[in-house]
Fold this sequence. Notes:
Elements: H1 2-42, H2 46-54, H3 64-80, H4 89-98, H5 104-120, H6 124-137, H7 144-160, H8 164-181, H9 184-200, H10 204-218, H11 227-240, H12 244-257, H13 261-277, H14 281-290, H15 297-313, H16 317-464, H17 467-477, H18 480-485, H19 493-506, H20 510-517, H21 523-533, H22 538-545, H23 549-563, H24 572-578
Helix pairs in contact: 1-2, 1-3, 2-3, 3-4, 3-5, 4-5, 5-6, 5-7, 6-7, 7-8, 8-9, 9-10, 9-11, 10-11, 11-12, 12-13, 13-14, 14-15, 15-16, 16-19, 19-21
Amino acid sequence: MKNKxxxxxxxxxxxxxxxxxxxxQKRTHQINASLLQIEQxxxxxxxxxxxxxxxxxxxSQLRKEEQALHALLFxxxxxxxxxxxxxxxxxxxxxxxxxTSSDSLHKAWTLFYLAQYYRDSDEKEKALSYFQQANIAxxxxxxxQFKFLxxxxxxxLLTNEDAHEKGIEKYQTANRYAILLKDxxxxxxxxxxxxxxxxxxxxxxxxxxxxxVGLTLSATTxxxxxxxxxxxxxxxxxxxxxxxxxxxxxxxxxxxxxxxxTELYPLWGNKGEILLEMNxxxxxxFYLSKDTRDYDPYFRAAQYKTSSIxxxxxxxxxxxxxxxxxxxxxxxxxxxxxxxxxxxxxxHKYDYSLIQSENKLLKIKRQRLYISLTAICMAVLTVAxxxxxKRREEKRKLAEQMRSKDDLMKEMRLQLQEKTIDLHxxxxxxxxxxxxxxxxxxxxxxxxxxxxxxxxxxxxxxxxHSEIIRKMEQLNKMSQQDKIQSxxxxxxxxxxxxxxxxxxxxxxxxxxxxxxxFPTLTKADISLCCLIKIxxxxxxxxxxxxxxxxxxxxxxxxxxxDKMGMDENDSLDEFIMEF
Length: 579
């Protein structure tokens, strides 16, 4: 009864574990699928991706891989929807996972957004470091969209840090990827920033060139939204080059395209400053007064500086001095506020990091307690089940062994006897086959020997009646002087053909096989090969072929290297004899 109860408990526990695992796996699959869909949606509809991410489960309920991707996508959606990112905590989760992951693309995106965050937090050194790390992580990935954005933002930061030359290099790299993407708006955005970099660096001709390229490219777009900005930048370039007439013409064209006040303010300010430098004070005052931007202290500082210049040119020195004083005070205020903001941000980060650390410690303690209790319960249950089944299995096996021992021994003896008989029979058959095989091999060897003897005799007889043997005998009888003067020993074309036929017969179609393997061989080459095959020495070949020793050597070298493709260390004679 106790055994049945224990079995029922084990079955229920196993079923519950299986159901929990199935539910967990199904939920994990659904979350993974949702995150991948959000990632695909991010490029076309970042606002929709942001809304979906806000309704996802809490990041603490996800696995590490899901936490990392969720954290990355959440931050990416914030940047794409122009929502300020106030903390790097989510990106730190993604960074901790992707640092040791083989997923280079997500690692690169994480490092890129960390660079963005630190740039916006005015921690420029950290931002530059993360841009560099993102660039290293992206070396083995093919994603032109990422590489364009990386180099574009990296160049902007380098330019702001007065590293203009390096910034321009990054703009050039970004341009290569923008061309590969074939995205006109990205190219226009690039030319605007690239040209501005040259403008603030005092390279007005280069800036003017880039703005004009952008303006030409903008003409191919439907809305031409970049025209007003590019025209204004061209106007600034012309103003810096003291070409005020062209600057005024360009800013007027830009004003004709602007629609709302946010677009008109900087254009009015630019036109006012152009007119001020042209000494048209009334018109300059009119346009400068229209630029009423005061929501940003930097704009107010620029207005105070311009007003000071205007009043100085109007010989109103007290007012000029007053505006200069305001300008200086505002610069001090901006610096102080910036310093205080940095201190407050650092305090917030410190407080937040403390809270995060405490939360992590509490979470780790709860997880450890839960894991410990679960592990203890599972261990006790596992030990009990294993012990029960082990005891029962041991008893069953012992009983079976005792019952089957005698039967097994009897069966083994019978099998041994049968196998012994079969082995003797097999040995007898093997001996018979070996004897028959030895006899057959002996007969075949005898036949082969007889055939080889007959073949050699036949070849000798055939060669003995050939013209080449007669001429060899004639050569052997002649003196050296007679060999040189006599023409009777020289092989004619017909005799060379006859020699090739005889060699073909005697040596298993030698010339046919040689011609098939080396189709570029000539009849003269075949004749030379035939003479080598029957062992004619080089000295006798000179008289049979009526050539000089140098010519024979050249023919052999040409045959060996050019027509047969043999190496320098290979022997032509050995090859022909064995062929």
